[in-house]
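Q: I'm writing up a methods section and want to include an example of the input and output format. Could you take the sequence below and give the corresponding predicted C-alpha cells, formatted cleanly so I can copy it straight into the document?
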Amino acid sequence: MVEPKPAGRVADNRLAPDDVVFVALERIIEGALVAGARITERWIVDQAGVTHAQAREALHRLDKLGALTLSARRGATLIRPDHVDPSDIRPIWLALLGMAGRKAAGREVVAPAPVLRTPSARWPRYLALRTNIDLIGRAAGSERLTHVLQRLALQSVVGRGGFGAIAPDAVAQFAASVARGAFDEAALNASFEESSPRAPARDEATSLPRAVGSAIIDLGNTASSARTYLDRIAKRLSLSPTAAPSTSDQLASAILQRIQFGEIRPGEAVRELPLAQEFGVSRGPVRDALRALDRQGIIDIEGRRGAFVQRFAARDVADLFEIRATVSGVQMAEAAIAPDRPDWIDDELRAGAALLDEIAHDPDSPLGNYIVVRRALAMVTLAAGGNIAVGRLAAELEGQVSILWTTVLRKSRQVASARTWRSIVEAIISRDASAARYNGQRIVEEAAVEALSEARAIERRSAPGP
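A: Here is the clean output for your methods example:
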C-alpha cells in the first residue's frame, strides 16, 4: 500500500519494488502507454493488483514525480511530447544540474555510489539515471533540487517515449566527478545532447501560470491603470480559446490568492468544510483544490490532521530562492534570445515595468495590486520566450515562493524590485541574454535576503528558552 508522505517533505520521490508507483512507472517507461495518453485508476488496478483508493493515490504521486498531469475535468494524462521539447528542457536542465555540481564541489559526499555502466533496457537505464541524479542532489545538500532534476528527467523520458535528449552515460560521468569533489564541465554539457534550433515562441506558454485572472483591489491612484493593463494582457494572451476553469481550479486559485496576500499564513490550517460552505459547493471540489495545491508544494496535507499552508525553515527558504533565482535567470534569458517575438511584446514589457514602478511609489496601493501586475508582467516574459518547460517550472516554484510574498514585498522592496524589472525589460528588448539572465537571478536573490532574515527571526522566536 502507498504510504502517505511525511509532513514537510518537498515531495514523495521514493520508489520501492513493492510500491504501486514503481509498478506503474515501470510499465509506462517500458512503453505500455504512449506519451500523452490517458491513464486511469482502472489501468493501475489491473497492472498492480491494488484497490481503486491505492490507484488514486498512485496517480497523485505520479503527478508529483512529473510523469503525468491531473485535471479535475480531463483526469490523468501522461506528459505530452510538446511539453518536453528538447530545446525547452536543455537550458533549464544544464542550469540546474550545473548549479548542483557547483554546490557539491569540494563537499564530502554521503550518497550511493554512481552507476557508471548504465544498462541499455529502458527501465534499468532510468533507475540508473535516478540513482545518479540522487547522488548529485545529495552531494549538493538539496532535496528540493534533487526533486526538480528528477522531475525534468522523468518528464523527458515519458514525454519523448524513451530518453529524449538526456544522455544517462554523461550524467553518470558527471555524478562520478561530483563523488570525487570535482566539477566535470564536459560531462555536464554532454548530459543533454544538442537539440534542434530554438523554436519560435509558442502560444501554449502564455497559459502558465494562470496569472491574469486575479482582481485588482480598488485602492490607490494606480488601481485604474493596473486594471487596464491586466485586461489588455488577458486579451493579448487569449490567442486560442480555452475551456473555463473547473470549480476545483477556481477554488485552488482563490485559496492561493489568500495565501499570497497574507490572509492565510504559513503553518495555518486550511479547512475543507468552512471553504465548502463559503463557496456553496460540496467538499469534493474543495478536496480536489487542496490536493492540487499539495502537489504544487503550497500546502501540506498531513493525513488525518488536515491541510496546512507550507511553512519553510530558514534552510528551506535559502534552498527555494536559490533554485527560483536560477529558473528566473533562464526564463529571462530565453525571452531575450527567442526568435520571432510577437510585435506587441516589447510595448507591453515597457508598459508593465513602468506600471510596477508607479504602484511601488503609490503609498495607498495595496500589496495585492503589485503582486498581480508583477505576475502579469512575468507572463509577458513567458510569452516572449515561449518555453513551456521553463514556464511550468517557474509556475511551480513561484507558487511556493509566493507564500512568503507578504514578508518580502513591502514598499521599500517593491521600489527596488520595480527598478530591477526595468533592467530585465531593457535587457530582453535589446536581446542581451547575459544581462537578462543576471537581472532575472538578481531580482529573486534580492528578495531572498529579506525572506531569509524573516525566516531566521521566526525560528529564533519559536526556539525554546534556555
